[in-house]
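Hey, resending since the last one bounced:
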Amino acid sequence: MRHMLVSAGASAAAIGLSQLDNPFLDESEFPRMTGEPISTWANKVIAWDEGWKIARRIAADLDLRAHLTASRPDEAIPVIEPIVSAVQQCRLGEAA
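The structure tokens again:
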């Protein structure tokens, strides 16, 4: 379940939504409305937010790499490194 929420947050960032667009911040998702424990709700908020942050870091890294190599179009921009790093961070978060 956590990886689905992280993925949803990353997808939201990729299409330009803000952190405040986290669907679990909507009043209809608050524990007093859903009846779920606060800790369950908080974990959902955090997982979505982590995904959003990962996607934003990747986008920022790719923007920086593109900017730095713009004058050298013959050099490939290594895009796999930030993706691998983000996946590893996500896995470490699940292990905790």
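The chain has a mean pLDDT of 80.

Sorry for the duplicate.
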